[in-house]
Specification:
The protein is of the alpha/beta class. It contains seven helices and ten strands. The strands form two sheets. The chain has a six-stranded mixed beta sheet. Strands 2-1-4-5 form a four-stranded antiparallel beta sheet. It starts with 9 loop residues before the first strand and ends in a 5-residue tail after the last strand.
């Protein structure tokens, strides 16, 4: 882990991302500059096509910039090949996706421990950490249930535990409430807020959900691939 007193957790400098659509160049990001500090509870917001998911993918090593640099936890990830990117994601990035992305044949416990297992963490250590987290998110009685036996909100809580179990530098959440009803969304946001406040977990969302945006202490607004606003405020849990 990097020394929190030295640099931002995430530094984006002059990032462009151009996609080729036949003969047409699509400029998804246009010279984005951005810093995210340790412990932030922030959102990338904007309309569909604004570039927020593209930017999140750059930070999460799921894509590479056409031009510019992305640094995460003092590591320049801009030009990682697939192997280096996968290794970095495994060890430094936690993901929470819109579609949960749980493995259907695995139980809640097995899904939650999956990242730790890939990292080679001993079984006893995995169990202690995963059970602690499942208890914290209110799923201690559901460890043996498979995804189809859980509600959408419960599945997303398992995804949060999976993201946290590997002790990542940052959790990236791409439209995490999109498939949840309003009550489940509020419960999930309450959980993430508590993890941020009590355990100093850094969260960066990509979302157009007003419920997410209202809960974040910082909202970075994008439009047509550019940062057009950066609002900070205090949120009362």
């Amino acid at each position: 882990m990097a020394d929190e007193s030295k640099n931002s957790l995430i530094e984006v400098r002059g990032v462009h991302r151009i996609f080729q659509d036949g003969a047409v160049e699509v400029h998804a990001l246009r010279g984005v500059d951005l810093d995210v500090e340790f412990g932030e509870f922030s959102a990338l917001a904007g309309p569909s096509g604004s570039g927020k998911t593209t930017l999140l993918n750059m930070i999460g090593c799921l894509d590479r910039p056409t031009k510019g640099t992305v640094t995460v936890d003092e590591v320049d990830v801009s030009n990682f090949n697939k192997t280096k990117a996968a290794e970095f994601r495994l060890n430094r990035i936690g993901f929470v996706f819109q579609a949960y992305n749980l493995i259907p044949v695995l139980s809640a416990y097995e899904n939650a421990e999956f990242v730790m297992m890939l990292k080679g963490v001993p079984a006893s250590e995995r169990r202690e950490k995963v059970m602690e987290l499942l208890h914290e998110v209110g799923l201690e009685g559901m460890t043996d249930r498979r995804p189809h036996e859980l509600s959408g909100g419960q599945q997303q809580r398992v995804a949060v535990v999976r993201a946290l179990a590997g002790h990542p530098s940052v959790v990236l959440a791409d439209e995490p409430t999109a498939n949840l009803d309003s009550a489940a969304s509020e419960e999930l946001l309450d959980l993430m807020w508590t993890l941020n406040q009590e355990h100093d977990v850094t969260f960066l969302f990509s979302s157009h959900d007003p419920a997410v945006i209202e809960r974040c202490t910082r909202v970075i607004r994008l439009d047509s691939g550019e940062v057009v606003g950066d609002e900070r405020g205090e949120v009362d849990g």
